[in-house]
Design goal:
The complex is a heterodimer of chains A (425) and B (249).
Chain A: H1 7-13, H2 21-34, H3 50-54, H4 67-71, E1 79-84, E2 87-89, E3 102-106, H5 107-112, H6 118-121, H7 132-140, E4 145-149, E5 159-165, E6 169-179, E7 184-193, E8 198-208, E9 213-221, E10 227-236, E11 241-248, E12 253-262, E13 268-277, E14 282-291, E15 297-306, E16 311-320, E17 328-337, E18 343-352, E19 358-366, H8 370-377, H9 383-399, H10 405-420
Parallel strand pairs in A: 1-5, 4-6, 5-7, 6-8, 7-9, 8-10, 9-11, 10-12, 11-13, 12-14, 13-15, 14-16, 15-17, 16-18, 17-19
Antiparallel strand pairs in A: 1-2, 3-4
Helix pairs in contact in A: 2-7, 8-9, 9-10
Chain B: E1 2-11, E2 14-24, E3 29-33, H1 40-48, E4 53-62, E5 65-66, H2 72-77, E6 80-83, H3 95-109, H4 117-130, H5 135-139, H6 148-162, E7 166-170, H7 178-190, E8 197-202, E9 215-220, E10 223-228, H8 230-239
Parallel strand pairs in B: 3-8, 3-9, 6-7, 7-8
Antiparallel strand pairs in B: 1-2, 1-4, 4-5, 9-10
Helix pairs in contact in B: 4-6, 6-7
Classes of the chains: A alpha/beta (425), B alpha/beta (249).
């Protein structure tokens, strides 16, 4: 076997990594069997990774941010965890304020004290080459959040995971969120960084017990030279509900992959995404909805607004297994191109083995609708304002799915800033 | 206020208007009636400045200005309002935001101070109540999920807020039940005034029972073929277009 990237780093770094030594070795072996997923892999066809696979990056050095740096990104009254270069900054976090029934801990702490998280951690990846970077994350994970919500607990305050990247290097972040029976919680993630070329490899695992509900909101606003690989794994027990909205603005190459296993009957999964692309950005949204049992509901709406030579990809796979009768699965992907040189790729995939199901998908790629623009001009709006309102409307529709008004407002501000910086005339 | 001379206009290279003349003075209401395909909506779109409606000959003067030299949004800010036959849905665009942006664009053009959120809301409530319109409609995305009647009421509410000088209403009566027709007509009548003018484009006479026109014109094959008072509309209601458009028989 040829030496895979990061083999030398792993050997050198592993003695200092927190806990889970055996698990790390196994995961590295899984990763090493395939190496980086190449562009020949269908699910990775557009995600060009050579800058991070060609020359292995070192872990980003410890760094810090000031309260002023983060102020604009905070959600009022949230339980906040601030990570800088992939490490928890305790001074800027307030996890000790977690209410009863909720534990919020640093992954590094949990692993270092020898807790066995492997029953959860091992569920993130299988032997597929498509999962190699998740396995690499398991091998190299350095920190992250472990959030446990006890049965029946409703957590009022959103839990906010904020990640800041300063300077070059990689961050291998792992978050594990476990919601007990009938529990409900809001988890928001935010990613921000400077101009340096760096890599964030983050894996989120969400486990929802019977009747649990998680509101998930993701704000990816990394620096424009950054690589961001986000892998979400969601497991839904019966009657559980997962509602996720992901906004992608940053990164040179950014990916947000969400795989959901509908393992319990009548579970619901709502996935939404907004990509805003400019320059030569690539923004890849990948979903796999696996309906294994009857009566599940999934709906997906992914939208992109693309300027310059940016490229957005939506690959959405829905699997309805033979037992999963009465499944209702929908997906929609809509793209607006602000420039002729921008590109959108849309690839819905349906694998249906049950006969009594509803599955619908639709995709559009286009410029702004001329009828709409004329209607707005006929009310006195100049073309630039009309375009800006239409584009804003196009993406705000997705934000309506965010339950928390504070998070919605924060995302709206981010998107508004992007739109106003664009030449929409 | 509006002087159309020998107007020829084509869509996709096909001539629809073939030498139309029409003069509308301030304070007047003109009804343009005609069978389907006679060019009624084309006239409305040409006046509003829609792309793709190419004027090949003739002139349109609005308040002494060359209307055809103005962009669609300039015309709107300058007081030309087109009420759409099929109002367009704007997904995700909040009705209040949309209309306040439009109202302030018009106000800036007129040299008036912009309205803040509170003053705008007051104005909007006042206009909406005239149209017996549910407030909640205005808080939703523009026209999205509205019934046909709600869309038409919304057109007139927008018109009331923007306070235009020349109102061109394209088949505003289509798709309205009798109660909605009465309310919409009341809204149109409330905007009549000595310094304003209205062009009602309609297929049927029934709107004209509620919004009484000063002049009725029959448009056929791209030209005005007859003009008269409101009695002409009643004649059309009785006899149809057969006396003016032989093929309508």
């Amino acid at each position: 076997m040829t030496v895979v990237p990061y083999a030398e780093q792993f050997e050198r770094l592993k003695p200092a990594l927190p806990g889970a030594a055996g698990l790390r070795e196994q995961a590295f072996a899984r990763y090493a069997a395939h190496g980086f997923p190449g562009m020949k892999r269908e699910a990775w066809r557009h995600t060009k990774l050579t800058p991070i696979s060609g020359a292995a990056l070192e872990p980003a050095a410890a760094s810090n941010v000031s309260p002023a740096d983060i102020a604009a990104h905070l959600i009022p009254d949230a339980l906040t965890l601030v990570f800088v270069n992939g490490r928890l900054d305790r001074a800027l976090s307030n996890i000790e304020q977690a209410p009863g029934g909720v534990t919020i801990e640093s992954l590094s702490d949990v692993l270092a004290r020898g807790d066995d998280l492997s029953p959860w951690l091992t569920q993130a990846a299988d032997d597929s080459p498509d999962d190699a970077l998740v396995s690499l994350n398991t091998a190299l994970m350095n920190d992250g959040a472990v959030i446990r919500v006890a049965d029946g607990i409703h957590v009022e305050a959103p839990i906010h995971l904020l990640f800041f990247a300063k300077r070059e290097g990689m961050s291998q972040v792992r978050n594990v969120i476990v919601a007990g029976k009938g529990a409900s919680v809001t988890v928001a993630e935010g990613y921000f960084g400077g101009k340096d070329a760096y890599w964030t490899n983050v894996v989120n695992q969400f486990f929802l017990a019977e009747g649990a509900s998680i509101e998930h909101a993701r704000q990816q606003n990394e620096g424009l030279a950054a690589y961001h690989i986000g892998s979400n794994r969601v497991r839904l027990a019966a009657d559980a509900r997962f509602n996720s909205v992901a906004v992608m603005l940053g990164g040179a190459v950014a990916r947000n992959e969400t795989r959901v296993l509908v393992a319990g009957e009548r579970a619901q999964c709502h996935l939404a995404g907004v990509s805003l692309g400019r320059g030569k950005q690539l923004q890849d949204s990948v979903t796999v909805l696996d309906h294994a049992v009857p009566g599940g509901i999934s709906d997906q709406v992914f939208k992109a607004v693309l300027d310059d030579q940016s490229h957005a990809v939506y690959q959405g796979k829905v699997i309805v297994r033979q037992d999963a009768q009465k499944t209702d699965a929908r997906q929609a992907n809509h793209n607006i191109l602000l420039a002729r040189s921008a590109e959108a790729s849309s690839k819905p995939e349906l694998e249906i083995f049950a006969d009594d199901v509803k599955c619908a998908h639709g995709a559009t790629v286009g410029e702004l609708d001329k009828n709409m623009l004329f209607y707005m001009q006929a009310r006195g709006l100049d073309p630039k304002t009309a375009r800006a309102l239409l584009v804003e409307g196009f993406v705000l529709e997705v934000l309506e799915r965010i339950a928390s008004p504070e998070i919605r407002d924060m995302f709206r501000t981010d998107i508004g800033g992007w739109l106003h910086g664009r030449a929409l005339s | 206020m509006l002087e159309i001379k020998n107007l020829h206009a084509a869509v996709d290279g096909k001539e629809i208007l073939k030498g139309l003349d029409l003069t509308v003075k301030a304070g007047e209401v003109h009804a343009i009636m005609g069978p389907n395909g006679s060019g009624k909506s084309t006239l409305a779109y040409v006046l509003a400045g829609r792309a793709g409606y190419e004027v090949t000959e003739g002139s349109v003067a609005y308040d002494g200005k060359d209307l055809l030299e103005m962009s669609a949004d300039e015309r709107a800010r300058d007081g030309v309002f087109l009420g759409f036959q099929y109002p367009v849905e704007l997904p995700g665009v909040n009705g209040m935001t949309f209309l306040r942006t439009a109202a302030n664009a018009v106000r800036r053009h007129r040299g008036l101070p912009e309205l803040d959120g509170i003053d705008f809301l007051k104005l909007l409530r006042q206009k909406a109540s005239l149209l017996e319109m549910d407030d909640s409609l205005l808080k939703r995305a523009v026209n999205v999920g509205f019934s046909g009647g709600e869309k038409k009421r919304n057109e007139i509410a927008q018109m009331a807020v923007l306070d235009p000088t020349l109102m061109v209403l394209d088949e505003t009566d289509s798709g309205l039940d009798i109660d909605a027709l009465k309310v919409v007509s009341k809204g149109i009548n409330a905007l009549r005034g000595p310094d304003k003018a209205t062009v009602l484009v309609t297929h049927y006479q029934r709107l004209l029972s509620y919004v009484e026109p000063d002049f009725v014109h029959i448009l056929a094959r791209g030209k005005i073929v007859a003009s008269g008072g409101k009695e002409l509309a009643l004649e059309l209601e009785r006899d149809g277009y057969v006396n003016y458009v032989p093929e309508a028989a």
